Amino acid sequence: MNTHRNLEVWKYSVEFVSTVYDITKDFPKEEIYGLSSQLRQSALAIPSNIAEGSARKGNKEYKQFLYIALGNLAELETQLVIAHDLNYLENIAQYDSTITEIRSMLYTLIKSLKKKKE
């Protein structure tokens, strides 16, 4: 049975959640309910929306959730830039390839769903 667990983009984004949790562990304590929490929520939302979309009845809803996941990814990318600007992270370039790869995988999946009939 095909589920979200079979999707490479879901697996890859779940791995990235662990990375985000690791990097936010060293943020200042005053950010526990601020930027730390926001980064974690954005990261968690990516695979969560992929999973929710794949469980929906039709491709239209599925694509909608994939677009939401893309929005979450953009939020995460922005929050990493802010964390860098606040000197909480030294090098955010190391995350660029992961973000780019997840974005590409999401667009590829969306494109494949557009080709399929409801």
TrEMBL record:
It holds the Pfam family 23S_rRNA_IVP. This is Four helix bundle protein. It comes from Myroides profundi. The lineage of its organism: Bacteria, Pseudomonadati, Bacteroidota, Flavobacteriia, Flavobacteriales.
